[in-house]
Amino acid sequence: MVSFQPTNGLSVDVEDWFQVGAFEHVIERGSWDSQIDRVERNCDEILQMFADADVKATFFTLGWVARRHPALIRRIAAQGHEVASHGWDHARVFRMDPQGFAEDVERSRKALEDASGIAVTGYRAPSFSIDSRTPWAYPILARQGFTYSSSVAPIVHDHYGWRDAPRFAFKPLDCSDLIEIPVTTATFAGRRLAAGGGGFFRVLPYGFSRWAIR
Fold first, then answer.
1. For residues 82 and 178, what is the distance between their CA atoms, to the nearest angstrom?
2. How many domains does the chain have?
3. Cα–Cα–Cα angle for 69, 112, 47, nearest 5°?
């Protein structure tokens, strides 16, 4: 019997604990510089874990983190992982206008490229915030030279989600080769459910996550 070994993409969102969407109404952006910093320590532990398992990943990283920890970005790149953009400071795309989004993306990419020394061509919107409200986002990413985005969660969620989006990779623009790679989902009992991600790994049983990813 031939065994089937699935091939999966692995990614990490590099942001500090106080920058996640759940805290946006509790911790003001103006206080970030005074918060206890954990992103470098935690990321180094993940890098060691990946080295032990001999796997590579894409690290979607905030420009704010790259400015504060350029040596961390260099370590990620030096170990053969991809450095990609997660925006500047975790502002959600559907709360920006096109000009603000373009400036955010450009600022983030410059910080990441300055720190890593390599071109950044991938993007993930904070909180998967590209959806039906942001049709202008993809043309901006294409103009700025990005080749792919992983910014869509094709599920129903109280904070984000684009329910009607395709589950699998698609081209959002006819005039560009830009590809959108939605986060992995599985269909269970007639519903789309997220198959991975930090919050879902903590909430859902391991058996479900393992089944969904396979």
1. 17
2. 2
3. 60
Confidence (pLDDT) at 5: 64
- In this structure, the number of other CB atoms found within 10 A of the CB of residue 144 comes to 15
C-alpha distances (whole Å) from 124 to each of 11, 34, 37, 149, 188 are 10, 26, 22, 6, 26
Same domain, yes or no: 112 and 31? yes
Among all chains, which residue has been given the structure tokens 């053969």? 80
Q: What angle do CA 49, 34, 22 make, to 5 degrees?
A: 65
How confident is the model over 80-135, as pLDDT tens digits? 999 999 999 999 999 999 999 999 999 999 999 999 999 999 999 999 999 999 99
Q: Which of 105, 109, 39, 108 is nearest to 75 (CA)?
A: 39
Low-confidence ranges of the chain (pLDDT < 70): 1-6, 158-159
Torsion, Cα 55 57 63 67, to 10 degrees, reads: 10
DSSP 86: -
Q: Are residues 97 and 198 in the same domain?
A: no
The single residue listed with the structure tokens 């500047």 is: 88
The Cα 137–Cα 131 span in angstroms is 9
Do 43 and 121 lie in a common domain?
A: yes
CATH number at residue 120: 3.20.20.370
